[in-house]
Amino acid sequence: MAELTALESLIEMGFPRGRAEKALALTGNQGIEAAMDWLMEHEDDPDVDEPLETPLGHILGREPTSSEQGGLEGSGSAAGEGKPILSEEERQEQTKRMLELVAQKQREREEREEREALERERQRRRQGQELSAARQRLQEDEMRRAAEERRREKAEELAARQRVREKIERDKAERAKKYGGSVGSQPPPPAPEPGPVPSSPSQEPPTKREYDQCRIQVRLPDGTSLTQTFRAREQLAAVRLYVELHRGEEPGGGQDPVQLLSGFPRRAFSEADMERPLQELGLVPSAVLIVAKKCPS
Predict the structure, then answer these.
(1) Quick one: which H or E segment has residue 231?
(2) Which of 67, 119, 183, 250 registers the highest number of CB atoms within 10 A of its CB?
(3) Which residues lie across from 291 on neighbouring strands?
(4) Is 219 strand, coil or helix?
(5) Distance between CA atoms of 185 and 51, rounded to whole angstroms?
(6) Predicted model pTM
(7) pLDDT digit string (tens) for 239-280?
(8) Which domains, ranges and CATH numbers included, belong to the chain?
(9) How far is CA 57 from CA 8, 37, 82, 99, 251, in A?
(10) Are 95 and 13 in contact (CB under 8 A)?
(11) 38 near 25, Cβ under 8 Å?
């Protein structure tokens, strides 16, 4: 009769009768704890409330005999008479123990689910770390390949430059061999020789002989100045004559002869210089002369 007590206990604990009978039958009537484990494990199954189509003996844990099947109705009353009657306090105590057992099973189930959730989280993190490590290795491989590609391109560029330099050197050597001398030592075409120039130390470079005129500024003793343009081949005496004709009269009405001096470098022109062209005296294209009184000889 223990099975009937387990069934009633499960019903007292709030389980539907169909579920309780099904749990006891499928656990082989191994007790309330086994039935409760099955009920809590399969409470979310969609067919948990479907009736179990098995003989009554299976529910009670044994095959019914022919005598039991024939006298089932008669023995029912006897079983009812032989069943111990529990007092209200005993029923409450039994219900309390069953509820505590249910709570314990519920806590165990929650703890198990929590452990499983933690294990799944650890597995997820481990997989994430492995994926991150794999991604990092892939990135490092790509960077390594990119660096190798850059080194290869640089080496090819250096090799190409070296080939160009070698080709230039070969071309130089071939030209040197062809023209009978080292490359770069070919003499330039001869420049036209300048014509003969006077050996005067104050003469301008030969290119200045191309000037046809000469601009002369003459500074007088009184601080004034005269400016006149002469032909480059005129003699210095023409400048002296121009000064004597255009300078102002001196006090006393006399006109002393003048002497011409160059400003820089300092030079006094002699009577022999008066017969020389301005070009030869280095006064082309322009010059500044100073007038000084000629000392009597």
Answers:
(1) strand 225-231
(2) 183
(3) 260
(4) strand
(5) 117
(6) 0.30
(7) 989 988 887 666 555 567 778 888 777 888 888 989 999 888
(8) 2-85 (1.10.8.10), 206-248+256-293 (3.10.20.90)
(9) 17, 22, 19, 28, 171
(10) yes
(11) no
